[in-house]
Amino acid sequence: MIFLALALAGLIAIGLAFTFWKARAIESEFPNIGELTDIGGYNLNALHIPKPAGADLPPIVFIHGASGNLRDQTTAFLKPLQGRAEMLFVDRPGHGYSERGGPENDFPDGQAAAIARLMEKYGIEKAIIVGHSFGGAIAASFAVFHPEKTAGLLLLAPATHPWNGGVDWYYDVTAKPYLGWLFTHLLTLPAGLVLMDGATRSVFHPNPRPDKYLEDGAPALVLRPDNFRNNAVDVVNLNDYVKRISPRYREITAPTVIITGDTDEIVAEEIHSKGLARDIAGSELVWIHNLGHKPDYIVTDVAIAAIEKLAGLPRDIQALARRAEARIAPHAQPGRSEMDLSVEHN
Q: Which of 10, 85, 182, 257 to pair with 298, CA 20 to 30 A apart?
């Protein structure tokens, strides 16, 4: 028994050492490209692009989804929108290089409040809020609780409404106070490294994942223990949260565009995107055939046209969506559950 106990202790020590070393290696490979700002007792990280001369768009705030960080939305939108607007790409609380803050940040409304305070720090009075996937829940909450700061709302494959069932088992394990710590410090990082390639391809499916996505989007940052646990807590809490908050989406008065695909394997568009279109008066639903969970990457031009329309420019987003469909190869829609955040990295 003593020998077995010593052997187990040795294996745990090796696992902890590997996780510590590999987490530091991931940070070395993907260093912080943003700036930390104290928003009231903790630091939020963001990449801020100041208002350029001759800007034709209002400020834009980008909110990434589950398992993501600011590099994801920066890769999709920074270059196409360069020189057109002041932009703020945010690491949500507890993600990327942002600190978690208090327990209020275990829920989308707390994270929305954190982003509102960050906007104030940068002197951004009002902005178009862009939220992808889990970030859609935060963007919708932002519009509910901070309408005076919401110039418009763009929701990309959003996760915003209650669904039947739960989430994958490892989220539940990770979110537990003590077992979760052991799980994230021993198992999730090596397992995540093995599964990363297939998981990210699943997020884009049926569309191809960009060749440099693993480098440019830096999804490996989520494998760090604290980051992984914060992500799990977010996901585990989401369904109960949207059960409480989604009835309030009817209060949203900001111009709203929702872009979704009909082959999304991560978030059920029939529940979430159609639910938003039903709940937000005057919103426009852009439904794109053969598009998966990443409209920000696969139909970036449609998303930018939506931003332009929210800014008051004349744009026929539906016509652009039809042209986007023509360049997306058709795929049969596979079966999937109503909501599955198990492989979501964005």
A: 85
**Is 334 contained in some domain?**
no
pLDDT in tens, 178-224: 899 999 999 999 999 999 999 999 999 999 999 999 999 999 999 99
Which helix (H) or strand (E) segment holds residue 285: the answer is strand 284-288
Give the rounded percent of residues in the chain with a pLDDT score beyond 90: 88
Summarize pLDDT for 165-185 with one digit per residue, the tens.
889 999 999 999 889 999 999
Taking the model in full, what pTM does it have?
0.93
Other residues' Cβ atoms within 10 Å of the Cβ of residue 208 = 13
3-state helix, strand, coil in the chain (%, to 5): 50, 15, 35
Yes or no: say if 195 and 268 are a contact pair by the CB < 8 Å rule.
no
CATH of the domain at 97: 3.40.50.1820
Distance in angstroms (rounded) separating the CA atoms of residues 9 and 12:
5
Give the chain's domain count: 1
In a domain, residue 335? The reply is no
Identify the residue whose tokens are 């309408």: 147
How far is it, in rounded angstroms, from Cα 333 to Cα 346?
20
